[in-house]
């Protein structure tokens, strides 16, 4: 049978898109028809070229400003103060407001007109923002037909609104938009309701604390009318977001739209005012209240100070992940830019480094080392370090490992920082396996399935051959990939050994379970029931799949590493092999009980997404962190000593029904000189969900040691924490700055076997120069 | 211990989508609106729109959702511009089945490699499906969902497009 070269099956076959039922027949045809065969080969050649060129083409990126709109950590303030109040407000808010006003006109203008259009048609302005056009509605290729629908204006307006909305951020971005929109124009209504209930829900809903509204209140007679229509968010980077607004208004589309709309408006004058108030107390105050009322936030905001008298207990799960540090290093070191704030998890930066805490004793699988000293960047405060050190394991005494790698071979893994780096790292690992170990490989894209049925570690050549044969490409097609991997581990389960799935990916979790909750359920279930743990290795560009990888590793009782270089691959898979692979304790939780006689308030540095409720500490069904052989885990607390005049942590509860607590008179406080007690709780890695956990505690009395007498490890960890705070633009950083950190870190390098601390000092220098360049260019 | 906050979920979803599809979406949009800056606006709009969605609903078909919304937005923009310069509706077909002036597109694409440059010489519909296939890493079926073409039609277009590219590439070598 002859095949015409126009037959699309040729290409479909080459792309693996031919219907499975047709493949056999088609292959027979190909055998009989050499022309068709060579045609397929030629097509494959072209496909290869196309793929390569797409892979090599420079990645197109949205501008910084465009992204800023998507991820700004601040909110905009759009005021309608009326002409009379404008100058005052402007003066109060400073120069930045002027620029914002200018660019804001177009944006607010849109809203008013839109509103009016809608009011004219149905008299109900609220509806405007609830109407949604189905964004996924098809547009046929034949756009001629569609264009006749004439819905252009509407859809454009939708987008203008959406853009505007997108600037209101996070919680308020979604839950509050409708109320904000309702409130924004009919200002008289709002003014009334605000007058009626000044401390009521409205200012709060706007994220506006009464204390921040106060300047208006004291300056203006009819102040509330002037704040009506506020949309606000606090800003720590106001200049950036102003640029954002400018840039969005500058696009031809918006300029044009803005003009059209302003023409149709009633010339109402709007101003967009940006408040330059970096230290965001109002928003934070709300959060903190929520915390104190017992609700737990799982946000990546820095944990605030808590007053000991209200909340004596601080509880969190340990975390031995280090991915955030390698990611930060990649950003600063390789790309020459500062990482996104949310990519910086301070505890992962700290835990990246080795600390020389000895393991002492044999009763528990890890020992605890506490230290305290003054804080170089905040006078009067104390820093407390909690260091955990797990018992070490000689490499030759390591229990046998039963590992199955689940490898993402989708097209996106093609670039050289992904699959090729993964392959090299894997080969390193395999070279260090011994005959008791087993390793299997499952891929979940390209050709899905079992690439290597588990082989023993003495068949290294075969294993390496399979690894080197892995290719990326093709659509993701991995139904059941993750189950297959778990089943393979399960089949070869080694009692008392390391049984683990290691997932390696750039974040595409198309592993056969599309719903991420189901995936987590599966991973958690297999960890709980079968004691098969999971480690995640992240590769390539991408910091947020990072969050997913972290989440999955957490639930699979494993760790998450980000491999940015072959050096890091070696560190994780060879140098740290025993700690990566051998878990000595699981569900490790820390609860610190602070003595209110000594501690006025305290703050946990990092571990923002590992915090737990106090009552979860002894809830043994609650999952927590795992610790591997030889691992060191470090957590730092910043403490405001009792009697300090520092008001940090004072924002706490102010209820009209309560008098301010007079600590000295409280009779329920025990006499003790201790600063705090650290409670630790953990389970044996083989324990079940129902099993009771072990618990022990270590008290700490503050010797009043000064910074200069603290250990090198302590000082180094502090400098890393300071670095994290700088990168996160933390408001808790005090006097911290790069020069100070450089000084601290370079003096605390110590033995530094692997050179990582020296590398950190270099990273600090680079971050400093990036920051300087950034501030001069702004 | 898990994140349940919807706002964070949305943020995460947008982040993820951005990292994974940003470049492909811009390339795809640029192939329709013929201008990279406008394409970026379109893509930004698309991501903003993504913020408005319920992450649970979108997550499963994130890629298809993004490309579909991006595509619709591209056509919105084109229609709008047509109206501005007062072009009759029936001239819109230009976008659909006539290739660009090769000299112009070559100029615009000179930073691109050969194949991507030649892609601009293909008819719009072939170019579109090929970008979706290779830049968007999609199956025929996914492409069919986004473009509202039948799977076999997608197959024809990709086949024809690749053939054409092959011709252009070998001409160049010769």
Mean pLDDT over all positions of chain B: 75
Global outline of chain A: globular
Our Rg estimate of chain B from Cα atoms comes to: 17 Å
Distance from N terminus to C terminus of chain A (CA atoms, Å) equals: 70 Å
The secondary structure category of chain B is mainly alpha
Low-confidence region ranges of chain A: 73-299, 475-479
Q: With helices defined by DSSP (H or I, 4 residues minimum), what is the helix count of chain A?
A: 28
Query: Given the helix and strand composition of chain A, which structural class is it?
Result: alpha+beta
Overall mean confidence score, pLDDT of chain A = 70
The helix content of chain B is over 70%
Biggest sheet details of chain A: 6 strands, antiparallel
Count of domain modules of chain A? 4
Order of helices and strands of chain B: HHHHHHHHHH
Number of strand segments of chain A: 19
Q: What is the overall shape of chain B?
A: globular
| Low-confidence regions of chain B | 85-112
Query: What fraction strand of chain B?
Result: under 5%
CA-based gyration radius of chain A: 30 Å
Largest interface, with counts of residues having CB < 8 Å to the other chain, equals: A-B, 97 and 90 residues
> How many domains of chain B, as an integer?
2
Q: Explain this structure to me?
A:
- The complex is a heterodimer of chains A (778) and B (174).
- Chain A has 778 residues and is of the alpha+beta class.
- Chain A has four domains: 49 residues, no CATH class; 189 residues, no CATH class; 206 residues, no CATH class; 186 residues, von Willebrand factor, type A domain (Rossmann fold), CATH 3.40.50.
- Chain A is 43% helix and 16% strand.
- In chain A, the strands form four sheets. In chain A, strands 4, 13, 15, 16, 18 and 19 form a six-stranded antiparallel β-sheet that branches. Chain A has a six-stranded mixed β-sheet with strand order 9-8-7-10-11-12, sandwiched between helices. A five-stranded antiparallel β-sheet of chain A has the order 3-14-17-6-5.
- The radius of gyration of chain A is 30 Å and the shape is globular.
- The termini of chain A are far apart.
- In chain A, 50% of the residues are buried.
- About 30% of the residues of chain A have low confidence.
- With 174 residues, chain B is mainly alpha-helical.
- Chain B folds into two domains: 98 residues; 75 residues, Arc Repressor Mutant, subunit A.
- Chain B contains ten helices and no strands.
- In chain B, helix 8 crosses helix 10.
- Chain B starts with 5 loop residues before the first helix and ends with a helix.
- About 16% of the residues of chain B have low confidence.
- At the A-B interface, helix 1, helix 3, helix 4, helix 7 and helix 8 of A face helix 1, helix 2, helix 4, helix 5 and helix 7 of B.
């Amino acid at each position: 049978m002859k095949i015409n070269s126009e037959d699309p099956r040729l290409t479909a076959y080459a792309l693996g898109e031919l219907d499975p039922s047709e493949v056999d027949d088609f292959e027979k045809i190909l055998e009989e028809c050499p022309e068709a065969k060579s045609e397929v080969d030629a097509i494959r050649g072209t496909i290869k070229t196309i793929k390569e060129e797409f892979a090599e083409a420079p990645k197109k990126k949205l501008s910084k400003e465009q992204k800023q709109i998507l991820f700004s950590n601040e909110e905009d303030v759009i005021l309608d103060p009326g002409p009379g109040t404008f100058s005052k407000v402007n003066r109060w808010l400073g120069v930045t407001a002027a620029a914002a006003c200018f660019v804001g006109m177009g944006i607010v203008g849109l809203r008013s007109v839109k509103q009016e259009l809608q009011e004219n048609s149905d008299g109900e302005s609220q509806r405007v923002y609830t109407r949604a056009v189905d964004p996924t509605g098809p547009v046929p290729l034949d756009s001629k037909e569609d264009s006749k629908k004439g819905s252009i204006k509407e859809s454009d307006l939708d987008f203008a609104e959406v853009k505007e909305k997108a600037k209101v951020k996070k919680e308020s971005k979604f839950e509050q938009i409708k109320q904000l929109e309702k409130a924004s124009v009919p200002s008289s209504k709002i003014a009334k309701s605000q007058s009626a209930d000044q401390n009521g829900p409205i200012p709060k809903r706007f994220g506006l604390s009464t204390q921040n509204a106060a300047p208006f209140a004291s300056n203006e007679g009819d102040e509330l009318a002037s704040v009506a229509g506020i949309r606000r968010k606090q800003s720590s980077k106001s200049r950036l977001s102003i640029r954002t607004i400018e840039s969005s208004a500058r696009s031809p589309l918006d300029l044009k739209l803005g003009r059209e709309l302003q023409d149709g408006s009633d010339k109402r004058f709007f101003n967009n005012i940006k408040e330059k108030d970096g230290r965001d107390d109002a928003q934070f105050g709300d959060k903190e209240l929520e915390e104190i009322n017992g609700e737990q936030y799982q946000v990546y905001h820095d944990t605030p100070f808590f007053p000991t008298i209200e909340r004596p207990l601080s509880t969190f799960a340990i975390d031995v992940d280090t991915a955030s540090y390698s990611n930060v290093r990649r950003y600063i070191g390789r790309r020459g830019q500062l990482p996104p704030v949310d990519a910086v998890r301070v505890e992962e930066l700290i835990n990246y480094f080795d600390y020389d805490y000895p393991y002492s004793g044999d009763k528990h699988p890890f020992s605890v080392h506490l230290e305290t000293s003054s804080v170089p960047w905040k006078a009067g405060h104390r820093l407390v370090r909690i260091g955990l050190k797990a018992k070490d394991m000689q490499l030759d005494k390591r229990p046998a490992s039963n590992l199955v790698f689940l490898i993402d071979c989708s097209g996106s893994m093609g670039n050289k920082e992904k699959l090729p780096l993964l392959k090299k790292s894997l080969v390193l690992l395999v070279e260090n396996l011994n005959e008791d170990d087993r390793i299997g490989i499952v891929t979940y894209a390209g050709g899905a399935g079992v690439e290597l049925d588990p082989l023993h570690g003495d068949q290294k050549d075969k294993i390496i051959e399979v690894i080197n044969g892995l290719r990326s490409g093709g659509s993701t097609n991995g139904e059941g990939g993750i189950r297959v991997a778990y089943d393979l581990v399960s089949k070869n389960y080694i009692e008392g050994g390391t049984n683990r799935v290691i997932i390696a990916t750039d974040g595409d979790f198309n592993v056969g379970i599309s719903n991420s909750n189901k995936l987590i359920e599966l991973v958690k279930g297999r960890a709980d029931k079968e004691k098969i743990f999971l480690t995640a290795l992240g590769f390539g560009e991408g910091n947020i799949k990072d969050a997913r990888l972290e989440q999955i590793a957490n639930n699979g009782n494993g760790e998450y590493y980000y491999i940015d270089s072959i050096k890091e691959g070696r560190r994780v898979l060879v140098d740290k092999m025993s700690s990566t692979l051998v878990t000595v304790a699981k569900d490790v939780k820390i609860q610190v009980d602070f003595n209110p006689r000594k501690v006025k308030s305290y703050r946990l540095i990092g571990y923002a997404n590992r915090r737990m409720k106090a009552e979860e500490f002894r809830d043994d069904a609650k999952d927590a962190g795992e610790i591997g052989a030889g691992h060191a885990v470090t957590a730092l607390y910043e403490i405001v000593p009792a009697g300090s005049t520092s008001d940090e942590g004072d924002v706490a509860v102010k209820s009209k029904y309560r008098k301010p607590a007079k600590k000295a008179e409280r009779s329920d406080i025990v006499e003790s000189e201790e600063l705090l007690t650290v409670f630790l709780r953990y389970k044996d890695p083989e324990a079940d969900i129902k099993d009771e956990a072990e618990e022990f505690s270590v008290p700490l009395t503050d010797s009043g040691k000064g910074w200069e007498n603290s250990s090198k490890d302590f000082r180094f960890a502090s400098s890393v924490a300071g670095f994290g705070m700088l990168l996160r633009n933390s408001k808790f950083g005090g006097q911290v700055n790069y020069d100070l950190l450089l000084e601290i870190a370079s003096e605390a390098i110590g033995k530094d076997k692997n050179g990582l601390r020296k590398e950190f000092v270099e990273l600090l220098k680079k971050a400093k120069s990036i920051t300087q360049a950034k501030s001069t260019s702004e | 211990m898990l994140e349940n906050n919807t706002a964070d979920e949305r943020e995460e979803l947008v982040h993820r989508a951005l990292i994974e599809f940003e470049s492909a979406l811009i390339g795809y949009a640029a192939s329709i609106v013929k201008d990279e800056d406008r394409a970026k606006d379109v893509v930004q709009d698309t991501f903003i729109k993504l913020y408005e969605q319920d992450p649970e609903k979108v997550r499963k078909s994130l890629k298809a959702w993004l490309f579909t919304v991006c595509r619709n937005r591209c056509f919105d923009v084109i229609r709008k511009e047509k109206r501005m310069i007062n072009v009759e509706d029936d001239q819109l077909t230009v976008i659909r089945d006539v290739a660009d002036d090769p000299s112009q597109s070559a100029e615009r694409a000179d930073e691109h490699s050969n194949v991507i440059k030649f892609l601009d010489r293909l008819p719009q519909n072939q170019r579109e499906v090929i970008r979706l296939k290779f830049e968007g890493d999609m199956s025929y079926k996914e492409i069919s969902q986004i473009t509202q073409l039948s799977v076999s039609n997608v197959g024809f277009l990709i086949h024809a497009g690749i053939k054409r590219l092959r011709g252009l590439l070998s001409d160049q070598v010769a």
